[in-house]
Write a structure and sequence with these properties.
The structure holds 2 protein chains of 2 kinds. An 8-stranded mixed beta sheet of chain A has the order 1-2-4-3-5-6-7-8, sandwiched between helices. Chain A is α/β, with parallel strands linked by helices. In chain A, a hairpin with a 2-residue loop joins strand 1 and strand 2. Chain A has 11 helices and 8 strands. In chain A, helix 1 packs parallel to helix 11, helix 4 packs antiparallel against helix 7 and helix 5 packs antiparallel against helix 6. Chain B is globular, with a radius of gyration of 22 Å. By secondary structure, chain B is an alpha/beta fold. In chain B, the strands form 2 sheets. In chain B, strands 1-7-6-5-4-2-3 form a 7-stranded mixed beta sheet, sandwiched between helices. In chain B, strands 8-9-12-11-10 form a 5-stranded mixed beta sheet. Chain B has 2 domains: about 280 residues, 3-Layer(aba) Sandwich (Aspartate Aminotransferase, domain 2); about 140 residues, Aspartate Aminotransferase, domain 1 (Alpha-Beta Complex). In chain B, strand 5, helix 8 and strand 6 form a beta-alpha-beta unit. In chain B, helix 4 packs across helix 11 and helix 13 runs parallel beside helix 17. The N and C termini of chain B lie far apart (about 60 Å). Chain B has 17 helices and 12 strands. Classes of the chains: A alpha/beta, B alpha/beta. At the A-B interface, helix 1, helix 5, helix 6 and helix 11 of A face helix 3 and strand 1 of B.
Chain lengths: ~270, ~425
Amino acid sequence: MLIEINGQPAYAYTGGKPFDAALPCVVFIHGAQNDHSVWSLQSRWFAHHGFTVLAVDLPGHGRSAGDPLPSIEDLADWIELLLEKTGADGTAPDVSLVGHSMGSLTALECASRHPGRLARIALVGTAVPMPVSDSLLDAAKNNEPKAIAMINTWSHSPRATIGGYAVPGIWHLGAAKRLMERQKPGVLYNDLAACNAYTHGMEAATALACPALIISGSKDMMTHPKAAAKLATAIKDVRSVSLDGAGHALMAEQPDAVLDALRAFIV
Amino acid sequence: MTYNFDTLALHAGQVPDERYGARATPIYLTTSFVFKDSDQAAALFNMERGGHVYSRISNPTNAVLEERIAALEGGVGAIAVASGQAALHLAIATLMGAGSHIVASRSLYGGSHNLLDYTLPRFGITTTFVDPRDLDAWRAAIRPETRLLFGETLGNPGLEVLNIPEVAAIAHEHKLPLMVDSTFTTPWLMRPFDHGADLIFHSATKFLGGHGVAIGGLLVDGGSFDWESSGGKFPTLTEAYEGFHGMDFSEESTVAAFLLRARREGLRDFGACMSPMTAFQLLQGMETLPLRMERHVANTRKMVEHLVKSEAVTSVGYPDLENHPDHALAKKLLPRGPGSVFSFTLKGGPGEARAAGRKFIEALRVFSHLANVGDAKSLVIHPASTTHFRMSDDALASAGIQPGTIRLSIGLEDAGDLIEDLNRGLAAAAKA
């Protein structure tokens, strides 16, 4: 569905069922240079099991208009506006944010900036801080195809580079590359720079008032599991789940395990 | 890390079986799959979890094959079907309905031509055929109701090299996809997505399988065509489908909407699925695709070189040759070589050449006389006495075939033995 936020149409996939503000809401937030479709399996399950779902395309990504937002703080405020506009935080105060990578920072910052508004947050493929190497930033700015190739290589576990994906017939390495290629020029550098510049994540984690779930891949080269473990030590009410053998593209590599961890946390 | 072509040809899509450690791809010869519980069953039917329900829709052995061809082509995924013809039909049926129109190269495999020219009009889908080398003709044939441009990477029988970058650009100007039949080239010789094509299909029966033992088709999605920005041309992919929970396939999957619809509707309703046994046989062939294609092309070049020098031959049509109209384009798009199927024409007047063709075929011992291409074994056919025997010389000429035209599919045998066999045939033809 389309929602107007800051004068721009924003898109949110609702999991195959109409949005219903009276139901507990799960907001799925994608990572850099991605869109809502990275969550298609998990969001669809929640939409058909008693929840209402908003799997967003962040501004400037996918079907959402406008320029990409330059900072994690801006993204967090945008999520807050989304909740207001849809009424998801009104009649149904049980709102969960589920974010992947850049989306995980957005969820963390949103929960930190708006304490009491969220029931829980799930951080998938996360690290705080989330530094981006100079070589990747440079490629993102000056040679997007090279940057996309670097990210695609580093985002998949050794096993995932061979395939054997859960969704029949989908070659995820190719799909992930094409999805990144679909985004507008400049989005990738914007997103990576936003992740790189987000420096007060540990303070946000320490101040977090709601429960958090951290889902990590043991073979994640983009957000190392050690960084996720360090983040967990700063959060008062936290559960951690490690997916053995998974890389950074957890939702595609081990979709059922991600869903099961989210179910155990949210349902 | 990511792997290179030769490694992907052996491994893509298959991790060793977790229960028994089987290194080869297991053949899951089962119609259906037991659900773990009711919740998992419902989730599989509603696309909340990945997995298999019923082998008409998907099967683990077939899924390995699908991932492998998608990996080799640089696509986002693929669907394995019963034949190359089934792949062509599945693509068309997924993209359009009655009232739609296709612009296609006129240099097509006869089976594809039959489907487009004779059968689909009965279902309200018409085709305009154009000279594949005439870019203006492609552009001029496009109508408001056109939904697809289609050609073969190497045309039949003249081996016209499809100018994929230019034809794709014309298609994309009109917000239309370009689909190519890549059977003759395979991804080892060319990856059409790299040049702008949007969809690829293969008769995997030919070079991909490579051993002439299994009929199968593969339909591959490049994932880059934006169905939503095509001005409502593709409602099957961009509007809610009542036949599958009101799903809007483009909403569901940004890059694989076409494959979703093709599987969830096309395989479900038309049912042209591939047997897992066939998928296994094709996988065995694909493991050696790089080795075989290299040898196919090397042997073909030796045969072409030999035939060009023969006094019994009037012409040889192979894009490696400088006198072929697409020589320069072939060098650009097919740097590893333009395949291993080609035609040559025997000397002689109309009646003599038909007789010479028959004598040539009958004298061969290594080449197999049959109607197929892309086998590990060398194959031969004389169109004027077999596939086109009812046609007059004039009708043959309009199809680009002469009475003395012989089509060869060069296999992997010793090149010296093949040349000796050709010499046997040429000597017999000269006495006709």
